[in-house]
């Protein structure tokens, strides 16, 4: 009998909550006018006489984040679902769901979702709530889905990764199957966004298999399971149950199924959704199954049916198109919809329409689905899942029909893992169990015969592999599989005794007995009640009689039936349904509570045959959990008694059980296995030892003699003998060997070492009886206390040994992990270590780890290192020791790195290492210490956790800096509230900027310069002669001049605040105000433009730039910038439309604009707003740069007339929109050399004016845009592209550049431009003023970095005055830029190279450098001066592009020189010669080039000069201010986190951005579109390295080394800088290292781990570093003086008698270390011995924390205990063997394994002096014992005799590794000639050390 826990009242938690929930109070049921015939059959399934709201709940176990067990309850009541979590009595509501319909089913369900980005499958955990026509799915991430179902649901079932639905059957289908059509009855849903697909069924295998849809309405599902994926159905016609395996349907099965459909018989179903059929008596698909349950089915049994259909709309007017693949755009949208939450709320259930019903063959109309005039074609919907028929129960002679349907089905397993399918037949009180298992190919399941158990109810306890049965007499029994464990005793609920009455009649009792008779005869019919249902299958007439009698008894007299049912097993708990309707919860005891017993039981399961092990486990469970009599016995003692009893021992006579305690109770006596009967408890008592003892005592008392049972003959009549018929007698050797493996594994548990002696006691007894001498000696050495057990009387004799089974895998010598490792450390040959499947998993892991660790130490040359074994009767499973393949694949790693990677893959943690004994853990800790110094950058997170590098762990995780950004944002928002206005620069990383620029306030100065929200100060003094009106006009004119500067600020501010913010999705993004008002001190009067005239729409483009700056502030990594949020930012007022247009372009440049829905893009474009269309087009093109995106191409092409068909309708597209579309084409197709667009753009450069009034204004910007777009498309391709050779592109561009006669128009342009322009007359010459800039830049970009000298010569400056007159001076600047682009690699950062671009004539005559007498008459000095300015400016610009973002010092000095040169040309004579506008423009170009070189560095020289230019406002144009502010923006790009790259595409974007022609006023777009100034974003990249302390998360200084790649110009170049800093482009770097000594080194290899470095740079440059112990940060200790003091303390090797807790805190913050220091490292002053221990502990702790090895503190303490504890008090010698293992590792292995692979000599964790000290102390103790009593060692080695006090001898043998006595050379000992050379030769095979041999020699000499 099994004692269960006391029952507790159980009330579903959701029941009480629903009483207070608004949705759970009442459920309105509207009356329906439907007739009875229209009600589905399923509606009657759960109807009872007293109908009320249905209440169901589900329970399951789960684990919280801290791995604590927790229960979950899903309670369904009416239309409310309550999901609660917690333990009983402490449960809380997690979520509640309420829908508008009665709930049919609510359950936990998992779906599978496939990610489009990496094609990985992800499991979605959901709750699925099914109601009549839909299913609501709620995920654990907060998403909700509502899947409408085009049929009424009868039942929903949970399956693997989905749901299975049963369609409600209508009466029309039952009674008129031919007219109603044979529609599918089962559907599956594999994703909430999928359509429910029909389920196919498959009968038979191979060629005889038949596939069809599951359309038989007589088949209803009664059970499903997810693992394995099985479905059980019941045939209502035949009354048979069948089992199916559910799997994915194959494509050919879908084709077969859809080909079997009869399309002519499709009828309506929706009109009769509520129809109710009567009981069906039609034929079943299982009718052709044989009586033996064969799994084949003839297709002839299927009547022609109709499968669901899918409607596909026709394409191109053709109704017969049958393609099932949608367009790529639709596919993309569908894929996106699967990864996002749907827009439809789960609370609203859409009704299935006619179209959705038709997809399944269900039409809401009575007319035919197939209409001849329909424009769509129907296509069958293929099934997603298929049910393979596996088994059908055998038909019985007397069928029960629908009454034989199972009430409950569940899966269970026995204790040996055999699976059973159990289903309860309530009418027969039978639980039928079917054994099943997978087939050999794992593609199906094989089912065995049916076994029936008598039961009224049953429930499976899966966590214990058991099931609880309720017998017919209302008693509870416990089974595992088909084996009965025993009855369950539940205190408080007594079993059916005399006071209780059975509801079933007794054979001798009349059915019409009275109530008094029932009570009177109850005491005499207990046995008869149990015999009523002896037959598991009663006859039909008997069943009827019993049913009648039951009802008669219930009405005639009350029946006391306490327990009426079982339900809801969870963990080891289950519910009892009581007669009064209440529920009680009880729990079963676990198999064992001791880890040692659990390990031994697992070993028995693996080593014994399954049937034997099952009986043994059942016997143990019954013995361990029987109702006790209050006797307190340890579980291990009980297990030993039970195990030895099952082996056949007479346990009462065993010495090892002599202290079992108390009188031997029958409860504690082991049971012999027998067949389960109703009288087993009585038989158990009769055969128990307690009964025998009592019989003997009574016989002695009465003077009677007893007849003893016959026992096997023994050699001595009085000596007890083992029972050879016992259950486990034959397997004693195998069990002993298996338990020895458990013993070796228990040695690996440091916390379980005290239990080793318990297991050793049992093993010593067994090996003594088995006469295994080597094992006996082994256990004596391990546990000297076992010596007293050798006197125990043996019960096993020689004859018994011959009967036992001796497996071949048993070794003569005991396997020892310590001995095996010792041989490995010494480099000696090792015997194969035997490993048994399923036993010693931790042992297997440790062995494989050391095999990997010492692979290069000679183990790779040995083949048979591990011997894999398998027990008899068990399948040989390969032990997962994959060290060989792992070592070969990681041969390039060092041994330390290899073992760390291997341990991380095997999921070994630091906690696992701390639980290992120190001898095995210390070598692995050495590997960790070695790898911790400089681990590779491409390791996994688990590897970094293992070595304790939290900095690299966080780097591997690459957590985004969102948390830091959000924190800064809140702080800065609070600060901004105190300011007057919001300036748009609040999200600066002030922590980083304070570290980068600690000595000045340059950042605040830049912020002041670029703010535009405050009114400017207008300081003027009114003269006496000036009237007030004139003075106001004068103030406004000054305001107008300053406003030119204010309007140019947003471009620079966008650069400064680039990618700094992450928006809040619930708020709109604030855009700073562009304030064009002024304040006149001292009264601060507001000044605005009220008295003067200003340009119309003066603020239009500045507002656009202001919006772009706001959009650029959003970081690309912001995840929640979706279409809804973008539209949410749309302003309601029209005056901010320009800002919103710029905002859209900024989002496009950041990559967020593609998130905008296509329809919303369409809404923006159809409004025709010029700026909005421009922003959307350029933004989308920038976001899709280089992708050749088809959708964006179509959108751009609509706005380019040249790309429209000639017959298309002419569209009125604004000029700036056309320009932006042309540039967008170039961005989308950059570097693709696309022929079509290259050809069109080439023609568009020279597009003539016209026709009529078109193309007459701002033609220069359009031609330039076409040239830039052509250059982007042809970037770096040159003229070598064969596909473009016929276009003569180079010649055409040269023609546009230098001019000449126009070439005749061809093709479509000839007809288009037949009508001339009405405004412009150009003649027959090419207008180079329009075409030259674009053609020149296109030529330079086309031949970018090709070094084509011939083409470059075209672009060189003319050498003569005559040729110079043909080129506009400003065009010379562009030509020099293009010349430098072609000769890219020849650009040098020197003044000489810049001036080398000047022709000699220009050098000679520019600015009158020669005397007037030497001037030629035909030389134009003004032309020469302008030519020199533009040539020098062009050379400076291309120099700035070449070294953009590099901070090259030579380039900096060169550009600084020419900036000063142009700035110094301020004399009137120089201004007259070159022109003020020319000098200003060249100065702007040089300043921008200078700032591009120093981009992101915040250089003070550049900032000072730009601030000086910023202060000017008189006679300074809008374009000059824009150039100045762009220079400031480049200097602090992205708040100092970004810089520029110099790749080809980046240079193309920069050319578009810094084109050297700036606007004159704010609305000037004649030569260059202002919006293109923002394309610098495409050339910006984050290259900031910001070290951040991993412990404090604060940014800090750290020295880093940048190692460059080897090139033709330099090798081995490196640079040491102090971070935070900007690094060079990644293509130039080989490695980045964090240098010491204050921080742990970090090395990132750019080539091996580019993704890691890119993720570092993308996350604000955060590079996590870990500070070393005893060091301060560079911010706290810049010079290192304080750290030097700490380091001197660390290097002090003197001991510390006590230690201050504050000192420890300065080295570590580990709470465990601090607690150890506070408790064990403080003097008490009470005892001198305690003070000495405190001193030792303080020294050890200080050494551990200062050298950053606190993980080995427990190793020091263990060694300290070994050295200081008397050996006589030691529990065993295992600790000393660990010490010997450590000493051997450091002596023989450490140097060869770690030192030769390390760059520097590694410092061992255990200092050599410490090892020497420990060795000397142990030697002193053991040598002192040997000196005092040498005879003990002599007696053991010569005779094998153990002394009475064997502790010292055992420790001596273990420590010195002496062999067993039988292996010691006896002939040598008998000689008496003890000389060292001879002894060394004689003992050489034992590989003893020379000092050990000398000790032996001296011992024998003294004994002689």
Question: Could you please describe the fold and organization of this structure?
Answer:
With 1904 residues, the chain is an alpha+beta fold. Helix content is 39%, strand content 14%. Strands 11, 12, 13, 14, 15, 16, 17, 18 and 21 form a nine-stranded mixed sheet that branches. Strands 1-29-28-27-26 form a five-stranded mixed sheet. A hairpin with a 2-residue loop joins strand 28 and strand 29. The longest helix has 22 residues, at 1421-1442. It is globular and about 140 Å long.
Structural class: alpha+beta
End-to-end Cα distance, whole Å, is 66 Å
Major sheet details: 9 strands, mixed
Percent range for β-strand residues: 5-15%
Mean pLDDT: 79
Radius of gyration using CA atoms only: 46 Å
| Share of helical residues | 25-40%
| Continuous helix count | 68
Give the strand tally.
46
Residue stretches low in confidence (pLDDT < 50, at least 5 long) are 24-51, 261-377, 496-560, 661-678, 700-717, 960-980
Task: Tell me, briefly, the overall form.
Answer: globular
């Amino acid at each position: 009998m099994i004692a269960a826990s006391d029952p507790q009242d159980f009330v579903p938690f959701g029941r009480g909550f629903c009483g207070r929930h608004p949705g759970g109070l009442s459920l309105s049921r509207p009356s329906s006018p439907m007739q009875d015939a229209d009600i589905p059959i399923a509606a009657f399934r759960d109807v009872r006489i007293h109908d009320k709201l249905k209440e169901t709940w589900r329970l399951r176990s789960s684990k919280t984040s801290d791995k604590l067990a927790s229960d979950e309850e899903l309670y369904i009541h009416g239309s409310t679902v309550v999901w609660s979590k917690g333990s009983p009595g402490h449960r809380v509501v997690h979520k509640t769901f309420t829908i508008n319909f009665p709930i049919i089913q609510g359950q936990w369900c998992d779906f599978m979702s496939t990610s489009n980005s990496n094609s990985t499958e992800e499991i979605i955990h959901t709750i699925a709530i099914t109601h009549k026509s839909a299913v609501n799915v709620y995920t654990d991430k907060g998403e909700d889905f509502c899947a409408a179902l085009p049929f009424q649901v009868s039942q929903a079932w949970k399956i693997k990764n989905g749901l299975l639905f049963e369609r409600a059957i209508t009466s029309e289908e039952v009674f008129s199957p031919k007219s109603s059509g044979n529609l599918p009855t089962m559907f599956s849903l594999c994703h909430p966004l999928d359509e429910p697909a029909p389920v196919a069924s498959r009968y038979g295998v191979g060629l005889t298999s038949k596939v069809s849809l599951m359309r038989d309405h007589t088949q209803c599902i009664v059970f499903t399971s997810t693992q394995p994926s099985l479905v059980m159905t019941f045939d209502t016609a035949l009354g048979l149950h069948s089992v199916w395996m559910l799997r994915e349907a194959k494509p050919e099965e879908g084709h077969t199924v859809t080909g079997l459909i009869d399309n002519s018989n499709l009828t309506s179903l929706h009109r009769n959704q509520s129809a109710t059929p009567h009981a069906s008596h039609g034929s079943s698909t299982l009718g052709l199954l044989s009586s033996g349950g064969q799994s084949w089915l003839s297709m002839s049994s299927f009547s022609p049916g109709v499968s669901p259909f899918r409607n596909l709309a026709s394409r191109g007017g053709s109704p017969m198109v049958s393609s099932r693949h949608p367009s790529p755009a639709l596919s993309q949208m569908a894929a996106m919809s699967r990864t996002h939450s749907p827009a439809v709320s789960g609370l609203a259930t859409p009704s299935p329409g006619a179209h959705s019903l038709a997809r399944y063959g269900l039409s809401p109309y009575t007319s035919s689905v197939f209409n001849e005039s329909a424009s769509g074609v129907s296509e069958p919907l293929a099934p997603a899942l298929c049910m393979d028929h596996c088994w059908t129960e055998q038909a019985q002679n007397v069928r029960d029909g629908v009454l034989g349907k199972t009430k409950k089905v569940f899966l269970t397993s026995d204790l040996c893992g055999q699976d059973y399918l159990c289903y309860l037949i309530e009418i027969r009180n039978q639980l039928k169990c079917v054994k099943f298992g997978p087939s050999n190919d794992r593609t199906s399941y094989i089912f065995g015969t049916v076994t029936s158990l008598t039961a009224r109810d049953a429930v499976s306890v899966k966590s214990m592999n058991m099931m609880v049965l309720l017998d017919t007499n209302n008693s509870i029994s416990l089974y595992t599989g088909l084996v009965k464990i025993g009855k369950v005793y539940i205190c408080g609920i007594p079993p059916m005794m005399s006071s209780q009455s059975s509801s079933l009649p007794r054979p001798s009792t009349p059915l019409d007995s009275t109530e008094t008779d029932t009570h009177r005869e109850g005491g005499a019919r207990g046995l008869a009640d149990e015999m009523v249902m002896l037959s598991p299958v009663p006859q039909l007439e008997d069943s009827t009689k019993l049913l009648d009698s039951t009802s008669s008894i219930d009405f005639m007299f009350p029946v006391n039936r306490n327990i009426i049912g079982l339900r809801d097993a969870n963990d080891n708990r289950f519910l009892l349904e009581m007669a009064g309707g209440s529920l009680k919860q009880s729990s079963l005891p676990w198999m064992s509570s001791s880890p040692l017993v659990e390990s031994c039981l697992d070993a028995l399961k693996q080593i014994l045959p399954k049937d034997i092990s099952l009986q043994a486990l059942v016997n143990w469970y019954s013995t361990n959990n029987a109702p006790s009599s209050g006797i307190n016995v340890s579980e291990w003692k009980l297990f030993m008694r039970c195990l030895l009893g099952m082996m056949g021992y007479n346990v009462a006579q065993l010495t090892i059980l002599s202290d079992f305690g108390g009188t031997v109770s029958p409860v504690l006596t082991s049971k012999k296995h027998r067949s389960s009967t109703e009288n087993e408890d009585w038989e158990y008592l009769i055969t128990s030892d307690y009964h025998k003892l009592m019989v003997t005592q009574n016989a002695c008392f009465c003077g009677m003699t007893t007849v003893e049972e016959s026992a096997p003959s023994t050699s001595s009549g009085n000596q007890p003998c083992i029972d050879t018929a016992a259950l486990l007698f034959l397997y004693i050797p195998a069990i002993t060997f298996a338990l020895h493996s458990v013993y070796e594994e228990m040695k690996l548990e440091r916390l379980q070492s005290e239990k080793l002696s318990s297991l050793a006691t049992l093993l010593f007894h067994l090996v003594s009886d088995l006469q295994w001498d080597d094992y006996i000696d082994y256990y004596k050495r391990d546990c000297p206390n076992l010596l007293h057990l050798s006197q125990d009387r043996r019960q096993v004799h020689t004859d018994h040994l011959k009967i036992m089974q001796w497996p071949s895998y048993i070794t003569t010598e005991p396997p020892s992990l310590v001995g095996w490792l010792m041989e490995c450390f010494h480099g000696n040959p090792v015997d194969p270590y035997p490993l048994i499947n399923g036993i010693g998993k931790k042992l297997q892991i440790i062995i494989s780890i050391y095999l990997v660790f010492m692979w290069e130490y000679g183990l790779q040359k040995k083949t048979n290192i591990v011997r894999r074994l398998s027990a008899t009767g068990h399948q040989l499973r390969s032990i997962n020791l994959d060290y060989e393949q792992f070592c070969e694949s990681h041969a390039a790693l060092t041994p330390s790195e290899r073992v760390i990677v291997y341990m991380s893959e095997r999921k070994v943690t630091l906690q696992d290492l701390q639980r290992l004994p120190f001898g095995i853990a210390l070598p692995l800790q050495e590997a960790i210490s070695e790898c911790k110094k400089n681990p590779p950058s491409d390791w996994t997170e688990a590897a970094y956790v293992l070595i304790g590098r939290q900095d690299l762990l966080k780097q591997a995780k690459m957590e985004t800096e969102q948390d830091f950004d959000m924190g800064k944002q809140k702080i800065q928002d609070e600060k901004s509230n105190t300011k007057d206005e919001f300036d748009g620069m609040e999200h600066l990383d002030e922590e980083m900027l304070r570290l980068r620029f600690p000595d000045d306030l340059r950042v605040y100065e830049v912020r002041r310069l670029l703010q535009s929200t405050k009114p400017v100060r207008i300081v003027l003094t009114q003269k006496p002669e000036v009237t007030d009106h004139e003075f106001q006009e004068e103030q406004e004119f000054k305001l107008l001049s300053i406003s030119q500067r204010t309007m140019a600020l947003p471009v620079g501010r966008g650069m400064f605040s680039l990618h700094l913010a992450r928006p809040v999705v619930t708020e709109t993004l604030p855009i700073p105000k562009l304030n064009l008002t002024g304040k006149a001190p001292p009264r601060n009067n507001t000044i605005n433009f009220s008295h003067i005239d200003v340009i119309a729409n003066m603020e239009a483009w500045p507002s656009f730039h202001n919006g772009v700056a706001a959009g650029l502030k959003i970081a690309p990594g912001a995840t929640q910038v979706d279409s809804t949020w973008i539209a949410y930012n749309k302003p309601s007022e029209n005056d901010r439309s320009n800002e919103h247009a710029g905002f859209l372009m900024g989002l496009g440049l950041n990559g967020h604009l593609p998130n905008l829905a296509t329809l919303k893009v369409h809404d923006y474009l159809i409004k025709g707003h010029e700026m909005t269309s421009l922003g959307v087009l350029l933004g989308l093109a920038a976001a899709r740069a280089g992708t050749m995106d088809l959708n964006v191409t179509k959108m751009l092409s609509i706005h380019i007339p040249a790309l429209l068909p000639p017959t298309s309708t002419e569209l009125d597209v604004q000029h700036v929109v056309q320009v932006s579309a042309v540039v967008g084409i170039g961005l989308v197709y950059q570097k693709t050399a696309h022929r079509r667009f290259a050809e069109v753009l080439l023609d568009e450069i020279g597009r003539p004016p016209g026709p009529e009034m078109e193309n007459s204004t701002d033609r220069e910007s359009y031609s330039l845009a076409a040239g830039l777009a052509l250059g982007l498309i042809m970037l770096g391709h040159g003229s070598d592209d064969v596909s473009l050779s016929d276009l003569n592109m180079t010649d055409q561009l040269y023609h546009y550049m230098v001019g000449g006669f126009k070439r005749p128009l061809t093709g479509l342009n000839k007809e288009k431009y037949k009508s001339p322009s009405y405004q412009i007359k150009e003649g027959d010459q090419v207008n180079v003023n329009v075409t030259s800039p674009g053609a020149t830049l296109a030529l330079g970009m086309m031949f970018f970095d090709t070094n084509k000298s011939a083409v470059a010569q075209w672009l060189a400056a003319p050498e003569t005055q005559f040729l110079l007159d043909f080129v506009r001076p400003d065009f010379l600047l562009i030509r020099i830029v293009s010349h430098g682009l072609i000769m890219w690699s020849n650009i040098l950062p020197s003044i000489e190279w810049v001036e080398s671009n000047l022709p000699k004539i220009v050098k000679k005559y520019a600015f009158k450098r020669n005397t007037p007498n030497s001037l030629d008459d035909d030389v134009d000095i003004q032309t020469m001066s302008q030519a020199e300015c533009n040539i020098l400016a062009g050379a400076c610009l291309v120099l700035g592009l070449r070294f953009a973002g590099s901070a090259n010092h030579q380039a900096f000095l060169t550009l600084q020189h020419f900036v000063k040169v142009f700035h110094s040309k301020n004399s009137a004579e120089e201004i007259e010669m070159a022109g003020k506008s020319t000098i200003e423009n060249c100065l702007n170009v040089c300043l921008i080039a200078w700032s591009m070189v120093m981009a992101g560095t915040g250089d003070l020289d550049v900032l000072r000069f730009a601030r000086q230019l910023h202060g000017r406002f008189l006679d300074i144009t809008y374009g000059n201010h824009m150039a100045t502010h762009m220079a400031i923006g480049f200097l602090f790009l992205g708040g100092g986190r970004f810089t520029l790259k110099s790749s080809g595409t980046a240079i193309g974007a920069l050319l578009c951005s810094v084109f050297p022609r700036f606007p004159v006023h704010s609305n000037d777009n004649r030569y260059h579109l202002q919006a293109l100034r923002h394309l610098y974003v495409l050339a910006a990249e984050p290259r900031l390295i910001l070290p951040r302390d991993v412990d404090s998360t604060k940014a800090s200084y750290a020295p880093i080394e940048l190692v460059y790649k080897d090139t033709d110009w330099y090798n081995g170049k490196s640079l040491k800088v102090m971070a935070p800093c900007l690094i060079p482009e990644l293509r130039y770097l080989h490695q980045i290292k964090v240098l010491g000594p204050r921080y742990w080194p970090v090395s990132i290899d750019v080539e091996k781990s580019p993704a890691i470095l890119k993720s570092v740079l993308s996350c604000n440059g955060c590079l996590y570093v870990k500070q070393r112990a005893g060091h301060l940060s560079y911010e706290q200790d810049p010079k290192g003086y304080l750290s030097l003091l700490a380091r001197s303390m660390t290097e002090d090797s003197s001991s510390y008698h006590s230690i201050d807790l504050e000192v420890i805190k300065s080295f570590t913050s580990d709470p465990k270390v601090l607690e150890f220091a506070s408790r064990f490292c403080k003097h008490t002053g009470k005892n001198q011995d305690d003070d000495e221990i405190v001193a030792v502990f303080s020294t050890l702790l200080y050494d551990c924390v200062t050298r950053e090895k606190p993980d080995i503190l427990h190793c020091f303490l263990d060694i300290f205990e070994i050295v200081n504890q008397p050996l006589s008090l030691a529990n065993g010698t295992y600790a000393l063997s660990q010490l010997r293992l450590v000493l051997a590792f450091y002596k023989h292995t450490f140097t060869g394994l770690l030192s030769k692979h390390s760059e520097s000599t590694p410092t061992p964790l255990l200092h050599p002096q410490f090892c020497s000290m420990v060795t000397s102390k142990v030697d002193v103790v053991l040598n002192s014992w040997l000196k005092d009593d040498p005879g003990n060692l002599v007696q053991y080695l010569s005779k094998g005799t153990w002394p009475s006090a064997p502790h010292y001898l055992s420790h001596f043998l273990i420590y010195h590794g002496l062999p067993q006595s039988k292996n010691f050379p006896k002939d040598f000992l008998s000689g008496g000639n003890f000389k060292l050379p001879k002894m060394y030769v004689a003992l050489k095979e034992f590989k003893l050390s020379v000092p050990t041999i000398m000790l032996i020699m001296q011992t024998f000499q003294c004994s002689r």
